[in-house]
Amino acid sequence: MMHEAIAFIALGSNLGDRAAWLASACAALHASHGVRVEAVTAAEETRPLGGMNQPAYLNQMARVRTVLPPADLLALCHVIERANGRERRERWAPRTLDLDVVRYGDLLCDTPVLQLPHPGLRDRLFWAREMAELEHRGRSEERRVGKECRSR
Known about the structure:
Shape: globular
Number of helices: 5
Strand content: 25-35%
Order of helices and strands: EHEEEHEEEHHH
Number of strands: 7
Structural class: alpha+beta
Distance between the termini: 34 Å
Radius of gyration: 14 Å
């Protein structure tokens, strides 16, 4: 029997049609085997971190139910990023799409590849607010998320 976990994935973009990149990522997550997007926050604009001069980010948070182990979920996020034009050249550089596994159940993890909860959580108060919002949403909204992912 596969273990299910609730994970929170942050989606961000600051290049091109930011809303379209977020929608594409949400739809790809929702269509992925072993992942079900249960709810997504509204997108919001935030200032970039890291000190580079670059455009503002459009961000949102997704709550997913998954049977994928944490490292596999992160690998899936990287595949979705690459499929949407993400190039990893320089830390803090502008990007079409950035997907971060922020939390995976109550798991604590500290490996070279994956840290949970995500260490950036302390610097991104909007992540904490968005996760709290998703934790409190009702089931009626969760049933509509598949349509939301496809229509954004």
